[in-house]
């Protein structure tokens, strides 16, 4: 039976299943950690960018408090601990450089099943910040009209022109429009005219936040300074979203460096395990190497055999690690979301082909380097001395 080099290497690897299994496990753990880290890094950066695009604003004006909490509430929906006076809207709109200032009043109503109904009162100014919105119908203007997010409309099985009852809102509401899926938190919101929301939520003349879009994003710092220096500046928290997201990325950068160091150390340990396993195989098969050389095998053939064994081990370990990373991505993402100060709604850990190829290439490079020294030593053995050597030396 004729065997190819990689088949022969795989057959030789299986002669010591315990050793091969331990070595393969080390490689799999290292590759899984590297793949999860790279997937999270890409997913988090992409998610922050999408959140900023969906919000459509350059500056978020919120009540005094933590800017991270305020940004998370405005993006994902929740009850606010405090409110802005409605009169602050005129102050914001009077600042030079402000193109659009969209006021909003948000309220959340928890359900017994763990979900919540998020109600957002807004004006048509909001449409100027949402160029990606596609509405089947129109934005609500009458007191009894609502705009449903895609997920809400699907759960209620309602379409434009229908009527619906909301247990947290008084009276029936006519559905003026249904928002096409955006992929973000807006899909789960119910939008009302601002005056109607202020009445129904019992917060007359108050707001939770103001979304501000500038004429020139390059003048962000100047606009922020003007907002902070206006008459209402002491009572508002001015959050430049691009700066906030950049700060969040900086905070995550330190954690990612630490995680990268852990993955790098794991790769080094896995490489040492591969080198040790192949080196032990060389020692145990010294007589076999002598017989191969005596039968006409060249030093290059011996080198190729043991070098291929290290590559086979690393390839099998890398594939196993990638499968583990893909299977555990949901658990890893849930674990990370519980510990992040701000997490986008988009998927954070998703194994992409580019990441998989990079990890596989890293494993093959690792196998090439780890197997070089044992393979070189095997190829340098003298046939006569190898055959005469005692077993296992």
Short description:
This protein is α+β, with helices and mostly antiparallel strands and 393 residues long. The chain contains 13 helices and twelve strands. Strands 1, 3, 4, 5, 6, 7, 8, 9, 11 and 12 form a ten-stranded mixed beta sheet that branches. The protein has a two-stranded antiparallel sheet with strand order 2-10.
Task: Tell me about this structure.
There is one protein chain. By secondary structure, the chain is α+β, with helices and mostly antiparallel strands. It has 2 domains: 182 residues, no CATH class; 172 residues, no CATH class. Helix content is 54%, strand content 16%. The chain has 13 helices and 12 strands. Strands 1, 3, 4, 5, 6, 7, 8, 9, 11 and 12 form a 10-stranded mixed β-sheet that branches. The radius of gyration is 31 Å and the shape is elongated. The two termini are 30 Å apart. The mean pLDDT is 80.
């Amino acid at each position: 039976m004729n065997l190819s080099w990689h088949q022969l290497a795989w057959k030789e690897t299986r002669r010591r299943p315990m050793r091969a299994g331990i070595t393969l496990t080390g490689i799999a753990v290292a590759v899984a950690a590297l793949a999860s880290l790279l997937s999270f890094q890409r997913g988090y950066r992409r998610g922050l960018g999408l959140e900023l695009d969906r919000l459509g604003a350059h500056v978020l004006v919120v009540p005094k408090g933590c800017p991270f909490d305020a940004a998370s509430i405005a993006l994902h929906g929740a009850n606010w601990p405090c409110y802005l006076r409605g009169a602050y809207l005129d102050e914001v709109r009077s600042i030079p450089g402000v193109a659009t200032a969209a006021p909003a009043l948000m309220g959340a109503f928890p359900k017994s099943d763990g979900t919540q109904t998020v109600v957002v009162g807004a004006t048509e100014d909001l449409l100027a910040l949402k160029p990606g919105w596609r509405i089947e119908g129109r934005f609500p203007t009458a007191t009894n009209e609502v705009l449903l997010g895609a997920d809400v409309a699907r759960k209620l099985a309602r379409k434009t022109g229908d009527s619906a009852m909301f247990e947290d809102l008084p009276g029936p509401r006519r559905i003026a429009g249904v928002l096409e899926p955006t992929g973000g938190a807006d899909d789960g919101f119910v939008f009302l005219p601002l005056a109607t929301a202020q009445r129904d939520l019992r917060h007359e003349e108050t707001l939770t936040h103001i979304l501000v879009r500038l004429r020139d994003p390059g003048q962000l710092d100047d606009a922020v300074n003007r907002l902070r220096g206006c008459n209402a500046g002491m009572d508002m928290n001015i959050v430049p979203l691009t700066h906030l997201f950049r700060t969040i990325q900086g905070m995550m950068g330190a954690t990612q460096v630490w995680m990268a160091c852990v993955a790098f150390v794991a790769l080094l340990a896995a490489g040492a395990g591969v080198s040790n396993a192949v080196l032990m195989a060389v020692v145990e098969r010294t007589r076999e190497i002598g017989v191969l050389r005596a039968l006409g095998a060249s030093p290059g053939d011996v080198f190729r055999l043991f070098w291929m064994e290290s590559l086979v081990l690393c390839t099998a370990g890398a594939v196993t690690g990638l499968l583990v990373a893909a299977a555990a991505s949901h658990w890893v993402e849930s674990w990370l979301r519980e510990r992040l100060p701000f997490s986008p709604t988009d998927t954070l850990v998703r194994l992409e082909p580019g990441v998989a190829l990079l990890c596989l290439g890293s494993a093959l490079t690792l196998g090439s380097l780890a197997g070089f020294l044992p393979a070189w030593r095997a190829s340098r053995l003298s046939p006569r001395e190898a055959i005469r050597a005692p077993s296992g030396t």
